[in-house]
Protein backbone atom coordinates (compact mmCIF):
# COMPACT_ATOMS: atom_id res chain seq x y z
CA UNK A 1 0.00 0.00 0.00
CA UNK A 2 2.78 2.43 0.97
CA UNK A 3 4.67 1.57 -2.23
CA UNK A 4 1.55 2.21 -4.34
CA UNK A 5 1.03 5.58 -2.62
CA UNK A 6 4.69 6.52 -3.19
CA UNK A 7 4.39 5.55 -6.88
CA UNK A 8 1.29 7.71 -7.29
CA UNK A 9 3.03 10.64 -5.61
CA UNK A 10 6.09 10.20 -7.83
CA UNK A 11 3.95 10.12 -10.97
CA UNK A 12 2.01 13.21 -9.88
CA UNK A 13 5.24 15.06 -9.21
CA UNK A 14 6.60 14.36 -12.70
CA UNK A 15 3.41 14.66 -14.76
CA UNK A 16 2.51 17.80 -16.62
CA UNK A 17 -1.18 18.44 -17.27
CA UNK A 18 -2.59 20.36 -20.21
CA UNK A 19 -6.28 21.10 -19.70
CA UNK A 20 -8.58 21.41 -22.69
CA UNK A 21 -12.22 22.44 -22.46
CA UNK A 22 -12.21 22.66 -18.68
CA UNK A 23 -11.76 19.36 -16.90
CA UNK A 24 -13.51 17.31 -19.60
CA UNK A 25 -10.36 16.48 -21.55
CA UNK A 26 -6.62 16.52 -20.88
CA UNK A 27 -3.32 14.97 -21.75
CA UNK A 28 -0.61 14.06 -19.27
CA UNK A 29 2.89 13.62 -20.63
CA UNK A 30 4.95 11.79 -18.04
CA UNK A 31 8.68 12.14 -17.56
CA UNK A 32 10.72 10.41 -20.27
CA UNK A 33 13.35 7.93 -19.23
CA UNK A 34 16.94 8.88 -20.04
CA UNK A 35 17.19 6.03 -22.59
CA UNK A 36 13.94 6.76 -24.47
CA UNK A 37 13.24 9.54 -26.95
CA UNK A 38 9.51 8.68 -26.81
CA UNK A 39 7.59 10.16 -23.88
CA UNK A 40 5.15 7.91 -22.03
CA UNK A 41 1.95 9.89 -22.41
CA UNK A 42 -1.80 9.75 -21.72
CA UNK A 43 -4.91 11.35 -23.15
CA UNK A 44 -8.30 11.10 -21.47
CA UNK A 45 -11.73 12.65 -21.21
CA UNK A 46 -15.08 12.22 -19.48
CA UNK A 47 -17.81 11.81 -22.10
CA UNK A 48 -21.41 10.98 -21.18
CA UNK A 49 -20.30 9.60 -17.82
CA UNK A 50 -17.61 7.41 -19.41
CA UNK A 51 -13.94 7.82 -18.61
CA UNK A 52 -12.03 7.16 -21.87
CA UNK A 53 -8.27 6.84 -21.37
CA UNK A 54 -5.45 6.23 -23.89
CA UNK A 55 -1.92 5.33 -22.77
CA UNK A 56 0.96 5.44 -25.27
CA UNK A 57 4.59 6.30 -25.94
CA UNK A 58 4.96 9.28 -28.27
CA UNK A 59 7.83 9.10 -30.77
CA UNK A 60 8.95 12.10 -32.82
CA UNK A 61 9.46 12.39 -36.57
CA UNK A 62 13.11 13.55 -36.26
CA UNK A 63 13.53 14.07 -40.04
CA UNK A 64 12.40 10.52 -40.88
CA UNK A 65 9.81 9.27 -43.36
CA UNK A 66 7.19 7.77 -41.04
CA UNK A 67 4.32 6.25 -43.03
CA UNK A 68 5.69 4.05 -45.78
CA UNK A 69 9.13 4.26 -44.13
CA UNK A 70 9.60 3.71 -40.37
CA UNK A 71 5.99 2.45 -40.18
CA UNK A 72 5.38 0.12 -43.12
CA UNK A 73 2.19 0.30 -45.15
CA UNK A 74 -0.23 -2.61 -44.81
CA UNK A 75 1.38 -4.02 -41.63
CA UNK A 76 0.07 -4.04 -38.06
CA UNK A 77 1.63 -1.28 -35.95
CA UNK A 78 1.28 -0.73 -32.18
CA UNK A 79 0.20 2.90 -32.81
CA UNK A 80 3.05 4.35 -30.72
CA UNK A 81 6.53 3.41 -29.57
CA UNK A 82 7.66 0.54 -27.34
CA UNK A 83 4.67 -1.16 -25.66
CA UNK A 84 1.35 -1.38 -27.46
CA UNK A 85 -0.88 1.66 -27.11
CA UNK A 86 -3.96 0.84 -25.02
CA UNK A 87 -7.41 2.30 -24.50
CA UNK A 88 -9.60 1.83 -21.43
CA UNK A 89 -13.27 2.75 -21.11
CA UNK A 90 -15.54 2.16 -18.14
CA UNK A 91 -18.72 2.23 -20.28
CA UNK A 92 -19.64 0.58 -23.58
CA UNK A 93 -18.83 2.71 -26.64
CA UNK A 94 -20.45 2.63 -30.06
CA UNK A 95 -17.71 2.98 -32.70
CA UNK A 96 -18.20 2.54 -36.45
CA UNK A 97 -21.67 1.09 -35.79
CA UNK A 98 -20.33 -1.62 -33.45
CA UNK A 99 -20.17 -1.92 -29.67
CA UNK A 100 -16.81 -1.81 -27.91
CA UNK A 101 -17.65 -3.21 -24.45
CA UNK A 102 -16.31 -1.48 -21.35
CA UNK A 103 -12.75 -2.74 -20.79
CA UNK A 104 -9.11 -2.31 -21.66
CA UNK A 105 -7.83 -2.94 -25.19
CA UNK A 106 -4.66 -2.92 -27.24
CA UNK A 107 -4.97 -0.23 -29.92
CA UNK A 108 -3.34 -1.03 -33.26
CA UNK A 109 -3.33 0.55 -36.70
CA UNK A 110 -2.61 -0.77 -40.16
CA UNK A 111 -1.69 2.31 -42.20
CA UNK A 112 -2.33 2.06 -45.92
CA UNK A 113 -1.77 4.48 -48.76
CA UNK A 114 -5.50 5.32 -48.99
CA UNK A 115 -7.22 3.73 -45.97
CA UNK A 116 -6.14 2.72 -42.48
CA UNK A 117 -7.47 -0.15 -40.40
CA UNK A 118 -8.21 0.63 -36.75
CA UNK A 119 -8.04 -2.33 -34.34
CA UNK A 120 -9.09 -2.82 -30.72
CA UNK A 121 -7.55 -6.09 -29.50
CA UNK A 122 -8.25 -7.99 -26.27
CA UNK A 123 -4.50 -8.22 -25.49
CA UNK A 124 -3.65 -4.74 -24.23
CA UNK A 125 -0.43 -5.57 -22.41
CA UNK A 126 2.26 -6.50 -24.89
CA UNK A 127 5.54 -5.15 -26.21
CA UNK A 128 4.96 -3.51 -29.55
CA UNK A 129 3.12 -5.88 -31.84
CA UNK A 130 5.22 -8.92 -30.89
CA UNK A 131 2.28 -10.90 -29.50
CA UNK A 132 -0.45 -9.42 -31.71
CA UNK A 133 -2.96 -12.03 -32.85
CA UNK A 134 -5.77 -11.05 -35.23
CA UNK A 135 -8.02 -13.75 -33.71
CA UNK A 136 -8.07 -11.66 -30.51
CA UNK A 137 -9.46 -8.55 -32.24
CA UNK A 138 -12.60 -7.23 -30.58
CA UNK A 139 -13.34 -4.47 -33.10
CA UNK A 140 -11.83 -3.66 -36.50
CA UNK A 141 -12.85 -1.04 -39.09
CA UNK A 142 -11.33 1.28 -41.70
CA UNK A 143 -10.92 5.06 -41.77
CA UNK A 144 -9.59 7.51 -44.31
CA UNK A 145 -6.69 9.58 -42.95
CA UNK A 146 -6.51 13.32 -43.58
CA UNK A 147 -3.35 15.08 -44.64
CA UNK A 148 -2.01 17.75 -42.30
CA UNK A 149 -0.63 20.96 -43.80
CA UNK A 150 2.32 21.00 -41.41
CA UNK A 151 4.34 18.21 -39.85
CA UNK A 152 3.10 17.04 -36.44
CA UNK A 153 6.53 16.35 -34.91
CA UNK A 154 5.43 14.23 -31.95
CA UNK A 155 2.76 11.54 -32.13
CA UNK A 156 -0.33 12.82 -30.32
CA UNK A 157 -3.65 11.36 -29.25
CA UNK A 158 -6.60 13.40 -28.02
CA UNK A 159 -9.90 12.31 -26.53
CA UNK A 160 -12.43 15.08 -27.07
CA UNK A 161 -16.02 15.50 -25.96
CA UNK A 162 -18.10 16.57 -28.98
CA UNK A 163 -21.60 16.31 -27.47
CA UNK A 164 -23.44 15.21 -24.34
CA UNK A 165 -22.82 11.49 -25.08
CA UNK A 166 -20.44 11.72 -28.03
CA UNK A 167 -16.72 12.14 -28.45
CA UNK A 168 -13.79 11.48 -30.72
CA UNK A 169 -10.35 9.95 -30.55
CA UNK A 170 -7.86 11.89 -32.67
CA UNK A 171 -4.47 10.53 -33.76
CA UNK A 172 -1.94 12.92 -35.37
CA UNK A 173 1.64 12.29 -36.48
CA UNK A 174 3.92 13.35 -39.29
CA UNK A 175 1.45 14.61 -41.93
CA UNK A 176 -1.46 12.28 -41.09
CA UNK A 177 -4.51 12.58 -38.87
CA UNK A 178 -7.34 10.16 -38.18
CA UNK A 179 -10.49 10.89 -36.23
CA UNK A 180 -12.57 8.11 -34.64
CA UNK A 181 -16.01 9.32 -33.51
CA UNK A 182 -17.79 7.41 -30.73
CA UNK A 183 -21.03 7.43 -28.74
CA UNK A 184 -21.40 6.37 -25.11
CA UNK A 185 -24.07 3.65 -24.78
Automatic annotation (TrEMBL):
Highest taxon above the source species: Bacteria
Protein name from the UniProt record: DUF2911 domain-containing protein
Organism encoding this protein: Salinimicrobium catena
Taxonomic lineage from the root: Bacteria, Pseudomonadati, Bacteroidota, Flavobacteriia, Flavobacteriales
Amino acid sequence: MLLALFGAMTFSATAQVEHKKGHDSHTMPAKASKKSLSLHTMAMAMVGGAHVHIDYSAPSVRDRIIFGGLVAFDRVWQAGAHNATWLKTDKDLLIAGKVLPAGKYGFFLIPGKEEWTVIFNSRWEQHGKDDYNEAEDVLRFTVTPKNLKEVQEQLTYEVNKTGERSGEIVFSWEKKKITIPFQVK
